[in-house]
Amino acid sequence: MFKPAHGFTLIEADRLERVQWRSSSDSVKGFTLIELLVVIAIISIVGVIVLTTNGSFGEDQKLKNGSLDIQTFIRTAKTNSSTNTLCTDSSGASWIVSFASGSSIDLICRTSLGVESPSLNNLNLSLKNLTIQSITSGTCTATLPLRISFAPLSSKITFSDSSAQSCISSAGALSINLQNIKSNHTATVTINSGGTIDVQ
């Protein structure tokens, strides 16, 4: 076998050269400053996008929950009247959902003698940054306070507002338009005279 003058064979010299090359490349570890800055910039951009998306998501959830709360209030009044749930010992109570202002909704019970209980339950929308933008029926806009009344047992629905507009009292459906004060997004709760309640 051929031996060079320094005493290594070609195979040994090749191995020695590979070992020396590996040890010199292993000593160069880590990232350059440019690589680190690029990664930090990408993470920052993604973080800003996630934070802005989450902020409006939270407000949209408040709007959705407020709509569902109104739907629950209306369904509670309807269920109480159809099952003849009484507010006192008298018979035949009717149940009312009263939209007293743009941010306050009350659940009220009226006895057969016409005596109304104080609010049995109150929904305060302002705590969720919500307001009732409008309550409409077709081209007619209701004036607050507005009441949705359910007759005992039959659950017949009547709508009435403070102006006693015939278009509200004879309406086949009402649309309650909610608005989130912070995001300006809106949602609609629709109730028709047949008792169907829909949230959009």
Strand content is 25-35%
Total strands: the figure is 10
What's the helix count? 3
Poorly predicted ranges: none
CATH homologous superfamily caption: minor pseudopilin epsh domain
Number of domains: 1
Helix content: 25-40%
CATH architecture: 3-Layer(bab) Sandwich
* Rg from Cα: 35 Å
Strand and helix order: HHEEEEEEEHEEE
Q: Between the first and last Cα atoms, what is the distance in angstroms? A: 89 Å
Strands in their spatial order, largest beta sheet: 3-2-1-6-7
What's the main sheet like?
5 strands, antiparallel
Shape: elongated
CATH class: Alpha Beta
Mean pLDDT: 81
Say what the CATH topology is: minor pseudopilin epsh fold
Class computed from helices, strands and strand pairing: alpha+beta
Can you tell me about this structure?
This protein has one domain: 3-Layer(bab) Sandwich (minor pseudopilin epsh fold), CATH 3.55.40.10. It is 36% helix and 28% strand. It starts with 9 loop residues before the first helix and ends with a strand. The model has no long low-confidence stretch (mean pLDDT 81). It is elongated and about 120 Å long. It is α+β, with helices and mostly antiparallel strands. Strand 9 and strand 10 (197-199) form a beta hairpin. It has 3 helices and 10 strands; from the N terminus they run ααβββββββαβββ. 22% of the residues are buried. A 5-stranded antiparallel β-sheet has the order 3-2-1-6-7, covered by helices on one side.
